[in-house]
Each structure stands twice: as structure tokens, then as C-alpha cells.
Design goal:
The complex is a heterodimer.
Chain A lengths: L7 E9 L2 E9 L4 E5 L6 H9 L6 E6 L2 E5 L2 E2 L7 E4 L11 H11 L10 H7 L15 H14 L4 E5 L7 H17 L4 E5 L2 H7 L2 E6 L2 E7 H5 L13 E12 L4 E6 L2 E6 L8 E7 L3 E4 L10 E12 L5 E9 L6 E9 H7 L6 E6 L3 E2 L1
Parallel strand pairs in A: 3-9, 3-10, 7-8, 8-9
Antiparallel strand pairs in A: 1-2, 1-4, 4-5, 5-6, 10-11, 12-13, 12-15, 13-14, 15-21, 16-20, 17-18, 17-20, 18-19
Chain B lengths: L4 H34 L5 H13 L2 H12 L4 H8 L9 H27 L2 H8 L4 H12 L1 H16 L3 H6 L10 H10 L3 H25 L11
Helix pairs in contact in B: 1-5, 1-8, 2-5, 5-8, 6-7, 8-11, 10-11
The chains are: A alpha+beta, B mainly alpha.
């Protein structure tokens, strides 16, 4: 915990006839915070309250010591140092792509510590060739990239993104995700990212706020929240953990890469990341099976010695979720994994808390 | 066909009146339209109804109350007299004010519809790009509502050119001051000068047709009186 952990304080309520939002959150002032939940969970409403677009909200909102809302005090959206990317294309139809970017440039505050230059934003989003086009001459993905560049050029101190990829099909989504990762890597800008898609969250988020029925039901770092067995949102097949690791070695012959994370390491398909580069790997619960003894002859490359921390019955009564800890005894570093096995297997293997076990990882992917 | 000097004076006066009225209508009508399009106030319905009244009221009723309102003992009349401007009925100024009231719905409704059509989203976007309310009005509302503003201008202008009853009640028939084309035609007919009436009438028919032609060519969905809904 440091001072940054509660850079954004949001104690907000919103009362609509069909829907109530009621949250009390402290969010970090760096990295990507995902507001994650199913549709209707209140994540967009919360984002709109943070932006000041939802005037009906009551409560308190502070950003790095500045009060944006408190009692009758309400800073209107155009006075908040935010950038906002809407779900659907929101470019001004009467302006070209460049005109849309200039709209932000003209209105950006003059005194900014490390301003995002026009060329930098254009290059980060790869829209050099699109600048003279009108919005109706751009594809959905291109429009969204221009909208993101525009949100950066207002020189925000907090970037709010409302499901920026939800209106796009899979290829378009995959086209934009790398730009978002680039943005995260190159700019020191806190981002609040609303999404209902576990794959987006796994790739982008550092911190997670799970929303349900207008309430924040789980908050914490991505690694910690996703490895919780009582994670309140039913992820089904998408349940699994995300680990931050480092590429330690690349095997040219077999085209594999060794990724080291706290407490363990895995071999996976070499996806071209250089040695020493930081990568994020995702291991789904359904892809980890458990064995009492190390299987010598098996196609499974990765088997990690682990300790069972917790076992619960999954949504489906025939399945069990097992939380495992992998630990490096010398350094003391550890990570958590989640495995999904049938309850019958758990019974036959005699699984119980504190028991050492081999976690056999069928599949692991760099994301 | 030839026009007398009086005819030409009436044509010129009509154009002058319609131009002044259209300019004023855009200035007055646009803020009203914006307010009506974006407010959730309980005053929205009453204000909409008041703005739309001239569509349903007989021009004589409207003209009568405007006459009273602007006359010697009316509130506006008292004000203009206190300011040393005399009273407005039977002057060009009075005609302008009456015409503005009379044509207001024809200007407010197309603009309101245009603003409602593009919705709140562009305004929210502008707000997150640090545009304050005035900035949003000039940088988003006006450019996005341009088709509506065009329709409104054409309708406001044409409707003012075509008015008769209110002019007669408020302005009477003073050449060069309040005698517009429609009144001049009436005079010609009264004097049994059918040729004179025919010349001006045909001019009005051609003018109105051209205006509507242009309007529908640019905005096929425009419907008179309901302002493009």
C-alpha cells in the first residue's frame, strides 16, 4: 500500500427507479483499473459519475486531492481533467478526423507537465493516413482510434474508457488492443476501463473492480482478485488467473519460451517476445489438471509443484475449484493458480487444504 | 405584366420585413429550440404550447391581442412610450414584432427537431473535451443543427412573406411603412384592379413554389407546420 493506492476516492450513489448505484471505492492513481461486470451492473453509470456526466449522482468524489464532487459542490465535466472514450463512435460528424483532433488541441489546458504531442498521439494510434477523412469514411475501428487519440490530446490526467471495443467485431477488437497496450506502456496516465469482456480485462487491467447490481462486489489487484475462489462474477469457462512474468529464455529449436513469474516458471509457445521483456500470461482454470505424482511420460510440458490453499464447489455441483499456491522456497515469492476439476476427482485424489500437489498446465498463453 | 411604383414599394417592404424577421427569429428561436430540446423542466410543455399557438390561432385573434399589448395602454406600449419611442402599432417596428411572434413556431420546431435528432451525445463528448456551455452551443449545436437552421430560415422567411391577417390588424395599410404585398393585392381587388392583383398574386405563387421546391430538394422530409417531424 502506498499513497497512490487511494488516489481516486469515489463514494457515490445514484437512484433511478429501476436501478441503484452505491459504491465506496479507493482506486489507484496509476495503471489500468477495470470496472468489470455484466451489462446493467452499473459500471458505465459509475464511469459517467466520475466524468460528471451524470448529474443525478450524489456523494463524494476526489481525484489526487482535488474535490470533484462533495455535497452541493459539483465540478462540471468540462472543468475536470479527464479524457473520455465512449462505447460507440463519437466523432463530430461535421469535422474531419484532423478537425476532431484539433477540437481537443484547441481546448487542452496550456500548462501540462508532460503533454502528449499531436504527432505522438497520431502515431500511438496509427492514424497518420486517416487524418483528412471524414468520420463516415472511416471504419468502426478507425473511428474509435481517432476518438482515443482525441481523448489523449485534451491532455487528461485521468482517462475514462467506456467499453471502447464492445461495438466492434473480433478482428477490429484485435486491431485496437495493441494500441491500448502501447498507450498503457508509453504514457504515465491512469485509466479507468469499463468492460464486460474477461479477455480485455486480462490483457489490460492492473486493478479490478467487479460490479454487480450497482455495487462493487470485489476489488483488488488483477492477480489477487482473479485467483479468488469466491470471485462473485460467474466467469464460467473464462475463470482463470493472470500472471506477470519475464521472458527468461527462448528455445530456437522447439520454438518455445520460458517465462518466469513469482514462485514458478512455464514453457510456452514462443510468440516473439525478446528475452527480458515483460509479458502477461493467462492460465484458465479448466486448463490446469491435478496429479499426486509427477507424470514422467506425458505430453504436458508444464507441471508445477504446488500447495492446495482452498477448495470449493463450483457453480456446477459436479465441479470443484481449487486454489493453489506455487512458491519459490529460496526467495519466498509466490503466486496463486486456480484449477477446475470434477468433484469426483477431488474426492478420489483425496484433495484437502495444505496438501502438496502437481499442477499440470495443459495450456498457457501470452496475452 | 407591369408593377406600379406602389407595387414595387410593397415588394421591397415585404422583402425587408421578411429579412429582418428571419434574422430576429433565428436569434430568438435558436435558444428557445435548444432549451426545449434539452430541458427536462416541467415548463417544457407549456412553453411548447405557447410557441405553437400561432399555428392554430386565427391571425385576427393573434393580431388583436398584439394590438392591445403594444397599444397605448398595453404593457409593451407603456414601455415604448416611457422610452420615448411612441407606440408600435401601425409602424414597421410593430409589424416586425408581430411577425416574429406569428412565425416563431415555424422556426423553433425545425431547429428543435434537428437538435433532438443528434441527441445529447455530441454535447457530452464536447463537455469531456473541455467545451463549456457557450462553446458547445457554437462548436457543436450550430454546426450539427445546420439542416434544421436552413429549413427554419426558409420557412420563417416564406411564412412572413405570406402573412396577411396579422399585418392588417397591426399594420393597417400605410404605403412604404406597413403595406406589404399581400395587403396590396387586397387593395387591388377592392379597387377592382384585377390585373394588378393578378400580377402580384402570380409573383407570390411563383415565389412560394420556388421556396418550397428548394426546401424539399434539400430536406425531403420537411413538413410545413410540423417543422420537419
Amino acid at each position: 500500500m502506498n499513497a497512490n493506492d487511494n488516489a481516486i476516492l469515489a463514494r457515490l450513489q445514484l437512484d433511478y427507479p429501476q436501478f441503484t448505484l452505491d459504491v465506496d471505492l479507493g482506486l489507484p492513481g496509476t495503471g489500468v483499473t477495470a470496472l468489470f461486470g455484466h451489462s446493467g451492473s452499473g459500471k458505465t453509470s459509475l464511469l459517467r459519475c466520475i466524468a460528471g456526466l451524470e448529474r443525478a449522482g450524489t456523494g463524494e468524489l476526489r481525484f489526487k486531492g482535488e474535490t470533484w464532487q462533495s455535497g452541493r459542490q459539483f465540478v462540471p465535466p468540462h472543468r475536470r481533467p479527464i479524457g473520455y472514450v465512449f462505447q460507440e463512435a463519437s466523432l463530430f460528424s461535421h469535422l474531419s478526423a484532423r478537425g476532431n483532433l484539433d477540437y481537443a488541441v484547441k481546448r487542452a489546458p496550456r500548462k501540462v507537465e508532460r503533454p502528449v504531442a499531436f504527432d505522438q498521439a497520431v502515431q500511438l494510434l496509427g492514424i497518420e493516413r486517416l487524418l483528412e477523412r471524414r468520420p463516415d469514411q472511416l471504419s468502426g475501428g478507425e473511428r474509435q482510434r481517432v476518438a482515443i487519440a482525441r481523448a489523449l490530446l485534451i491532455q487528461p490526467r485521468l482517462l475514462l474508457m467506456d467499453e471502447p471495443l464492445a461495438a466492434l467485431d473480433m478482428p477490429r477488437k484485435l486491431e485496437i488492443l495493441p494500441y491500448l497496450e502501447g498507450l498503457k506502456r508509453e504514457l504515465d496516465l491512469p485509466i479507468i476501463y469499463v468492460s464486460h469482456a474477461p479477455d480485455e480485462v486480462a490483457r489490460l487491467a492492473d486493478y479490478l473492480v467487479a460490479m454487480e447490481d450497482g455495487k462493487a462486489v470485489a476489488t483488488g489487484t488483477l492477480e489477487e482478485t482473479l485467483s479468488r475462489l469466491d470471485f462473485p462474477l460467474h466467469l464460467g469457462e473464462e475463470a482463470g488467473v493472470v500472471l506477470e512474468g519475464l521472458v527468461a529464455e527462448r528455445d530456437r529449436e522447439w520454438r518455445l519460451a520460458r517465462v518466469v513469474f513469482d514462485g514458478g516458471e512455464v514453457w510456452l509457445r514462443d510468440s516473439g517476445h525478446a528475452v527480458h521483456s515483460e509479458v502477461r500470461v493467462r492460465i484458465l482454470a479448466r486448463d490446469i489438471s491435478l496429479a499426486k505424482e509427477r507424470q514422467a511420460e506425458s505430453s504436458i510440458v508444464n507441471a508445477l509443484p504446488a500447495t492446495i490453499v482452498e477448495i470449493i464447489t463450483d457453480e456446477h455441483a459436479g465441479l470443484a475449484l481449487v486454489r493453489l499456491q506455487v512458491k519459490d522456497e529460496r526467495s519466498g515469492d509466490s503466486s496463486f493458480l486456480v484449477s477446475r476439476v470434477t468433484r469426483r476427482s477431488a474426492h478420489l485424489l483425496g484433495l484437502h487444504e495444505g496438501m502438496p500437489i502437481w499442477a499440470q498446465i495443459k495450456s498457457v498463453a501470452v496475452i | 405584366m407591369h408593377f406600379t411604383d406602389a407595387d414595387l414599394t410593397a415588394i421591397w417592404l415585404t422583402l425587408k420585413l421578411a429579412t429582418c424577421v428571419t434574422a430576429l427569429l433565428l436569434l430568438v428561436g435558436t435558444p428557445i429550440a435548444w432549451w426545449l430540446a434539452s430541458t427536462r423542466s416541467r415548463w417544457k410543455s407549456p412553453v411548447s404550447a405557447i410557441v405553437a399557438l400561432p399555428i392554430v390561432l386565427p391571425p385576427s385573434v393573434l393580431g388583436f391581442y398584439l394590438l392591445v399589448f403594444m397599444g397605448n395602454n398595453g404593457p409593451l406600449g407603456q414601455l415604448t412610450q416611457a422610452l420615448g419611442l411612441g407606440v408600435l402599432p401601425f409602424t414597421f417596428g410593430g409589424l416586425v414584432i408581430a411577425s416574429v411572434v406569428y412565425s416563431l413556431p415555424f422556426v423553433v420546431q425545425p431547429i428543435q427537431n434537428a437538435i433532438e435528432a443528434f441527441g445529447q451525445r455530441p454535447l457530452e463528448v464536447a463537455a469531456t473535451l473541455r467545451a463549456g456551455p457557450w462553446d458547445r452551443f457554437f462548436s457543436v449545436v450550430l454546426p450539427q443543427a445546420r439542416p434544421g437552421l436552413l429549413t427554419a430560415s426558409v420557412l420563417g422567411f416564406a411564412h412572413t412573406v405570406g402573412e396577411f391577417g396579422v399585418v392588417l390588424m397591426i399594420g393597417g395599410n400605410i404605403p412604404g411603412e406597413t403595406q406589404v404585398v399581400s395587403v396590396q393585392i387586397y387593395d387591388h381587388v377592392e379597387a377592382l384592379d384585377y390585373a394588378g392583383a393578378h400580377g402580384l398574386s402570380l409573383l407570390m405563387v411563383v415565389f412560394s413554389f420556388l421556396v418550397l421546391l428548394v426546401l424539399y430538394a434539400f430536406n425531403p422530409r420537411a413538413v410545413l407546420g410540423t417543422g420537419g417531424k
